[in-house]
Design goal:
Elements lengths: L6 E6 L7 H11 L7 E6 L1 H4 L6 H17 L7 E5 L5 H10 L4 H5 L2 H9 L6 H15 L5 E3 L5 H18 L7 E3 L34 H9 L16 H14 L3 H8 L4 H27 L2 H30 L7
Parallel strand pairs: 1-2, 2-3, 4-5
The protein binds adenosine-5'-tetraphosphate.
Length: 334
């Protein structure tokens, strides 16, 4: 820790248009930490290139992701909002931590296995070492708490193992981070295959609800959502489609699952899906409006990015020089 506040860090890849999974599992929970913690929220563009990206789209999405952070309530005066590639210590520490991460550990990562299967023609080294770069992102800021969806739990555990390993060899260097996984919304599932998580890079548009989808699109996608046999609207392992919709409804209305089940008892699936779609669209309407306002002010977005990069750089540099000293690197005396 470099000031008296404990640190929160989290990131989102600008690898596609963000989904309600990214929103409910991660971003909308971020602002709750802003008063008590020093929060770093990063647009992790370096992670995004582990899968081939179109350069113009990557650039546009980087601005959009930053604007979405703010549209979801993150005030750049109270949070450090920045872009990963603007702070070179991420790559620098990422390389160092690669040398303290075992091949066997990386081979066990389920995201690597999933993404290798999806991108069989581009199984690059970056995709494999993604978790040690993620560990660097977190450890650079001496982070205590990392709010993420459940899909990132395995990577976070590896970041803890890497921090502990490094600390054991060189003495206390990194704070060992804890994950913060929300009780509701930690895994929002695909509307077309509710046994899988909703992913922004899914090519089936009906499976994914994007934060910036229009109200009509949102409602249409929910109307087409896959449901389960028999007409009961209850949360159950045997009913992944209905359970996913109840979870989404409960997140956007702040009602409990039990309250939602009571509200929809006896209703047909068609009306239920329409009600969920409308609740989601209404919840996202202010985010969409604020996003449009922010995107119209590119100068403000650029100033926010620059300010965030400066703040992040100052603290990242301190951790990096400590790491270099510990491992025996020399520094030039100018
Ligand atoms: N479906 C989800 N439910 C809950 N949380 C989710 N997150 C992602 N999908 C869901 C959380 O969103 C944050 C940012 O995710 P990311 O950009 O790092 O990428 P990801 O986890 O790989 O998410 P995607 O949407 O599936 O991206 P692509 O398709 O590019 O791989 C994380 O906290 C994540 O847990």
């Amino acid at each position: 820790m470099y000031n008296d506040k404990k640190v929160v860090f989290s990131g989102v890849q600008p690898s596609g248009n963000l989904t309600i999974g990214n929103y409910l599992g991660a971003i909308r929970n971020f602002s709750a930490f802003s008063n008590e913690y020093h929060c770093y929220y990063c647009v992790v563009d370096m992670h995004a290139i582990t899968v081939r990206q179109n350069p113009a789209e990557l650039r546009r999405r980087t601005y959009e992701t930053l604007a979405l952070y703010m549209a979801c309530g993150l005030d750049p005066e109270k949070n450090t909002l920045f872009v990963q590639s603007h702070v070179p210590q991420h790559a620098e520490l990422g390389w160092v931590l690669d040398c303290y991460t075992m091949f066997g550990e990386l081979s066990r990562m389920t995201q690597f296995k999933d993404k290798s299967a999806k991108n069989a023609d581009n199984i690059n080294a970056g995709l494999f070492t993604y978790p040690s770069l993620m560990a660097a992102d977190i450890l650079l800021y001496q982070t205590e708490l990392v709010p993420v969806g459940i899909d990132q739990k395995q990577h976070l555990e590896l970041a803890r193992d890497i921090a502990n390993r490094f600390n054991q060899i060189y003495g206390e260097t990194f704070v060992v981070p804890e994950g913060f996984i929300p009780k509701e919304g930690a895994k929002i599932c695909s509307l077309q295959d509710p046994t899988k998580k909703m992913s922004k890079s899914d090519t089936n548009e009906n499976a994914v609800v994007r934060i910036l989808d229009s109200k009509d699109d949102i409602i249409r996608k929910f109307k087409r959502a896959v449901t389960d046999s028999n007409n009961e609207i209850i949360f159950s392992l045997e009913k992944p489609g209905i359970s996913n919709l109840l979870t989404i409804y409960s997140c956007v209305t702040d009602k409990t699952i039990a309250e939602a089940e009571r509200e929809f008892a006896g209703m047909g699936y068609g009306d239920f899906k329409l009600a969920v779609g409308e609740a989601v669209a209404d919840n996202l309407a202010p985010v969409r409006a604020e996003f449009a306002r922010l995107m119209a002010d590119k100068a403000y977005l650029e100033a926010t990015m620059a300010k965030g990069a400066d703040e992040a750089f100052r603290n990242a540099r301190r951790t990096m020089s400590k790491v270099k000293r510990k491992i025996g690197f020399t520094e030039p005396k100018h």
